[in-house]
Design goal:
Length: 555
């Protein structure tokens, strides 16, 4: 019997905030975005990126539109230091982009980091130290005052040593993180942040960034939002502060925690493309940004070619975007279910220019992010008749009459069931053409057909092969179809039948256009079934459709 978790795990304590405001707010603007792919994301890779890969990735982040990019931990390794230097010395950093580096509150590391940053125009110097009770007890054996002293001393050392860079024209903005903020007592987190701000003395032109990380995600997103709103209310220099988020995804709710914390008052978001990061990952910035996009909010990030972004990400990190990853996964716009396919197919024609996007089951226009419509409906044994018709129309131009959907749907469904796998569009159209259009080895083969019009009467002559025997027929009627059916009945070689429905359309355009006809025949035994025919001549296409239906009845 499974053990009870009650004695082993303690519930996360809630925040007392009875007048919380964030539940009644809505998102109205995008936050400041900061990518930490090159630092937090890179350290989580089994094989960290090379300098050349990091350079390509940096250029990708710039193209996407990030104005703040954490480029590494230059005091931690020579590779990190060299990468920072190459960005600066090779002039790769646009004037409107700030590079951010991470550093612990130690003098030697601060000095080394400043050395790596010489010549940079816009710098975010990110200092941090751990503040949670368990970090204080287990790791540092330190008191609250000790921990606050580490933070304050780090800011003092930065101010002491950064003078030469500032004199040379560098603009330095401070970011401070009380690491493990969400596991720290709120009053102590506030105390440390206030002490840091006292030393730094931010201004309206150079605000301090207080980054409040969910270093490990322990609580539900609403508790995280309460923590952020509490801090935003109690900071004495809130107007001079940018409150920043850095969520991880241990509970699988990093996106939700970030979205609610933005409602709670946060100004800035740190994360990575597709959520790469330690353990279960960092915040997925692509998802949060495109969620805002689907609510009509300009994000400042350009994911109009998301497949290209994904390609660079996967190649440089050697990670893979899962097929169900929001927006970017291979299957996120794909419906296999018959009812879903039917709803998509029926809602699609209602999309008009200038009207809000409202395709059922598809929350964003795939074209907005460089995806095609080809994979929206895919066919397996769970699919329905509408999905098959959608694929034949959008991929190959066959606009089947609605009454024919059930017939073709069953044919394709049975095929997928027999194979036990998904059918590709090529396999679907091949099955359609084999069933309806191909005459090879068919009981009835149309070899020649011609008509003569005399007033309101049409006379047709046809050369057929019926089960290998040549049959010449002549018929008269009020049109080619009527004349052909009368001539067929007179031969006695095929079942008697009547036309129940008829439709046609062009297949392609220009000089190469062909006509396709669909004819539903009702047989003497009560059966009703469709045939299809294609020809450059619309008259001949309809005759081929009759032959198609007859062949299907004789199988």
């Amino acid at each position: 019997m499974p053990f009870s978790p009650a004695g082993k795990y303690a519930p996360f304590p809630p925040v007392r905030l009875p007048d919380r405001q964030w539940p009644d707010r809505v998102h109205e603007r995008a936050p400041i975005w900061c990518s930490v792919d090159l630092r937090d994301g890179n350290q989580a890779l089994a094989q960290p990126m090379s300098v050349e890969e990091k350079l390509e990735y940096f250029e990708l982040l710039v193209r996407v539109g990030f104005k703040q990019i954490e480029v590494g931990f230059p005091s931690a390794s020579q590779i990190e230091f060299d990468f920072c230097r190459r960005l600066i010395e090779e002039g790769r950093i646009p004037d409107d982009v700030s590079i951010q580096i991470l550093c612990q509150c130690r003098e030697d590391l601060i000095v080394r980091s400043l050395e790596a940053l010489r010549g940079a125009k816009n710098i975010i110097f990110h200092l941090y130290n751990s503040t949670s009770p368990k970090q204080r007890e287990y790791v540092f054996g330190a008191t609250r005052e000790d921990i606050k002293g580490i933070a304050v001393r780090g800011i003092q050392l930065l101010k002491q040593h950064m003078g030469p860079l500032v004199a040379a024209g560098s603009r330095i903005q401070l970011e401070y993180s009380p690491e493990s903020f969400t596991s720290t007592e709120l009053d102590f987190a506030l105390e440390v942040c206030e002490a840091v701000t006292d030393v730094w003395q931010p201004t309206a032109d150079n605000k301090i960034i207080l980054n409040l990380p969910a270093t490990v995600e322990y609580a539900t997103p609403n508790v995280h939002a309460d923590q952020i709103e509490w801090m935003c209310r109690h900071l004495t220099r809130r107007a001079l502060t940018l409150v920043s988020l850095h969520t991880h995804n241990d509970r699988g709710t990093g996106v939700a925690a970030t979205e609610l914390a933005l409602l709670a008052g946060a100004d800035r978001v740190e994360g990575t493309l597709f959520g790469n990061g330690e353990r279960t990952g960092n915040l997925d910035i692509v998802t949060v940004a495109l969620n805002l996009h689907t609510h009509g909010i300009e994000t400042g990030l350009d994911f109009s070619d998301l497949p290209r972004v994904r390609e660079v990400y996967e190649r440089c990190t050697r990670m893979e975007v899962p097929p169900r990853q929001p927006y970017a996964g291979d299957l996120v716009f794909t419906a296999f279910s018959g009812s879903h396919q039917d709803a998509i197919k029926k809602s699609w024609p209602h999309q008009k220019p200038g009207r809000p996007w409202d395709v059922i089951y598809i929350p964003i226009d795939p074209a907005d992010i460089g995806r095609t419509y080809k994979a929206i409906i895919r066919i397996n044994s769970q699919s329905g008749k509408g999905g098959v018709a959608y694929v034949l129309e959008t991929e190959f131009g066959y606009t089947l009459p609605k009454l024919m959907h059930k017939e073709i749907g069953k044919l394709i469904n049975d095929l997928a069931d027999a194979r036990g796998t998904e059918l590709s569009p090529a396999e679907i159209v091949a099955a359609f053409q084999s069933e309806y259009l191909e005459q090879a080895n068919a009981p009835v083969e149309l070899r020649e057909f011609r008509t003569i019009e005399r007033g309101a009467t049409v006379t047709c002559q046809a050369d057929l092969k019926v089960r290998g025997e040549t049959v010449l027929l002549t018929g008269e009627g009020n049109g080619p179809i009527d004349a052909f059916l009368r001539g067929l009945a007179a031969t006695g070689r095929v079942p008697a039948c009547d036309v129940q429905s008829y439709s046609e359309h062009s297949l392609g355009s220009g000089a190469e256009a062909r006509a396709v006809s669909y004819i539903q025949l009702k047989l003497a035994d009560g059966r009703s079934l469709f045939g299809a025919g294609v020809d450059t001549n619309i008259e001949l296409a309809s005759i081929r459709a009759i032959v198609s239906a007859l062949n299907r009845s004789l199988k």
